[in-house]
Amino acid sequence: MKNGIKALVFDVGGSVFDWQTSTRNSLSKLIAAKQADIDDHEFVFKWRRRMFETLAEVRRGVLDWRNADQIHRDVLDELAKEYPSLELTDNECDELNEAWHRMDVWPDVPEALERLREDYIVSILTVLSLSIVVDSSKHAGINWDAYLSCEFLQVYKPEPEAYLAACRLFRAEPEEVMMVAVHPPDLLAAQAAGLKAAYVKPKLEEAGSRGETSSFEIKATDYTDLANQLCS
Predict the structure, then answer these.
(1) What is the largest CA-CA distance in the chain?
(2) What is the pLDDT along the chain (232 residues), one digit of tens a residue?
(3) Sign (positive/negative) of CA torsion 152, 14, 225, 229?
(4) Considering just the CA atoms, what is the radius of gyration of the chain in Å?
(5) What is the DSSP string of the chain?
């Protein structure tokens, strides 16, 4: 244990993985093939926003339990109806949904992760499915000590139990675990559960990437800076 911290648990969607480029590139190819007049940025941001809206309904018990793959696909069916000029078939929706499985990482992530793994347990803690984060990690060539998906924790962030379950799995007290993310609301929820928080400045703006950061134990400009602060 270093700096009183046993494990670092990372949010990954937007924090580590660049979901925007992956989904926009896949969608842009379909738009070009269909010669449709559609704003790919608008489309994927609706996709992402509604995914979290649906996830909130799952958390409240309004909808049956389902993982992020199914939620992404359900929302895509809705969007296909709203953008009829795309004329998306079921097979095209399935393939477009695979964009979430081949997300790239930000350039400073791989080296920083390897440095951090020398001193800490370094794990994912995400609302994304296990399949998404395993596939994208292999696609990007990065390694983790563990992959914790809320899919099999049976509780989604930002519920306190999601963070506390991660602590129990690593046989650590909450104060011995640090959540790493670019989204202040995620970090504030982790702190409320007793974890420490490390904020990394986001590479791209997205929903949830703004907010109060003054209470966080670490504020880093990028992942290299994060590793420098935690490994010094």
Answers:
(1) 56
(2) 688 999 999 999 999 999 999 999 999 999 999 898 999 999 999 999 999 999 999 999 999 999 999 999 999 999 999 999 999 999 999 999 999 999 999 999 999 999 999 999 999 999 999 999 999 999 999 999 999 999 999 999 999 999 999 999 999 999 999 999 999 999 999 999 999 999 999 988 776 677 888 999 999 999 999 999 999 8
(3) negative
(4) 18
(5) -BTTB-EEEE--BTTTEEHHHHHHHHHHHHHHHHT----HHHHHHHHHHHHHHHHHHHHHTSS----HHHHHHHHHHHHHHH-GGG---HHHHHHHHGGGGS-EE-TTHHHHHHHHHTTSEEEEEESS-HHHHHHHHHHHT---SEEEEHHHHTS-TTSHHHHHHHHHHTT--GGGEEEEES-HHHHHHHHHTT-EEEEE--SS--TT--S--TT-SEEESSHHHHHHHHH-
Two tokens, residue 231: 């490994």
The residue to which tokens 């953008």 are assigned: 83
> Which of 116, 172, 119, 177 is CA-nearest to residue 2?
119
Report the length, in residues, of the chain. Answer: 232
Amino acid identity at 37: D
| Domain architecture of the chain: domains with CATH | 7-16+106-231 (3.40.50.1000), 19-101 (1.10.150)
